[in-house]
Amino acid sequence: MTLTPEQQAEIDELRSQPRQTLRAVSEGMEAHLYKAVPVLDHGFVRVVDYMGDDAAITQAARVSYGRGTKAVSNDEGLIRYLMRHWHSTPFEMCELKLHVKLPVFVARQWIRHRTANVNEYSARYSILDREFYIPEPDALAAQSVVNNQGRGEALSGEEAARVLEWLKSDAGRAYDHYQEMISTEGQQGLARELARMNLPANIYTQWYWKVDLHNLFHFLRLRADAHAQYEIRVYAEAICAMVKDWVPFAYSAFEDYRLGGAVLSARGLECVKRMLAGEEVTQETSGMSKGEWREFSSMLDG
């Protein structure tokens, strides 16, 4: 992980000046404020600001749902009820703002979640640092033979060494040319907004990313999943650790019903009922396609 001296100085200054406040405070998240958590080889995630806590969720729910929630006797039970029944609005009362340093190709996956506010480092105005994501050898994997979006077994031996060398040399050469194109020594120099197009997708960028808790949970459900691409999953896992300390009741419910839970189709539910009744159900008698049956069976096998 690399923080610039200016960024580190800003973090140190902010952490050295605690302030009293009347707003809702999460002690768990206070411990994360301004601390940069390393991710991948040069990346990080740090909490810049947050709003709300578990109590903000239940407060909003009791206002909007009124008497309908009075059967739920405590905040944790209410939050679990809201999560279980997909009542999303109360979770939108909490917000999180992160500063993230990540490879460009990860950022392009991440930005598909269009429910956040984003401000990215501009290579039109500034010169990008010479920092590239180079995978660890065990993260160099072949294309999966069963999943067009996934990885298979890790490369090994000469092939792995050759790929790593290409990644390093290609990135270095592209950056050398980038520097030469924008140089002003003895030449006019190409505009930064044009020179950047020659940079590889594994160069690092940075952004501020602000999102409410409901949409953050949706992001984490997809990106912290074991099937997500490794390079974005490690960021999601780092954020999960922060959210767990920030809103422990909400995160516990999310972990139970979303991360660790499963949604059955009507056909899937009918198959489970038939199995519980002692019937042997196969793909041919299930009414499911081969792909659906494979996923259904995998879910049951755990």
UniProtKB/TrEMBL annotation:
Keyword RNA-binding in record: no
Active-site residues, as the UniProt record annotates them: R223
UniProt-listed CDD domains: ThyX (cd20175)
Catalysed transformations (reactions): dUMP + (6R)-5,10-methylene-5,6,7,8-tetrahydrofolate + NADPH + H(+) = dTMP + (6S)-5,6,7,8-tetrahydrofolate + NADP(+)
Coiled coil spans: none
GO molecular function: flavin adenine dinucleotide binding; NADPH binding; thymidylate synthase (FAD) activity; thymidylate synthase activity
Cofactor details (free text): Binds 4 FAD per tetramer. Each FAD binding site is formed by three monomers.
Catalytic class of the enzyme: transferase
Binding positions (dUMP): Q109, W110, I111, R112, E120, Y121, S122, A123, R124, R196, R223
Cofactor or coenzyme needed: FAD
PROSITE patterns: THYX
EC number: 2.1.1.148
Record flagged with keyword Secreted: no
Cited Pfam families: Thy1 (PF02511)
Entry's family note: Belongs to the thymidylate synthase ThyX family.
Function, in words: Catalyzes the reductive methylation of 2'-deoxyuridine-5'-monophosphate (dUMP) to 2'-deoxythymidine-5'-monophosphate (dTMP) while utilizing 5,10-methylenetetrahydrofolate (mTHF) as the methyl donor, and NADPH and FADH(2) as the reductant.
UniProt-recorded name of the protein: Flavin-dependent thymidylate synthase
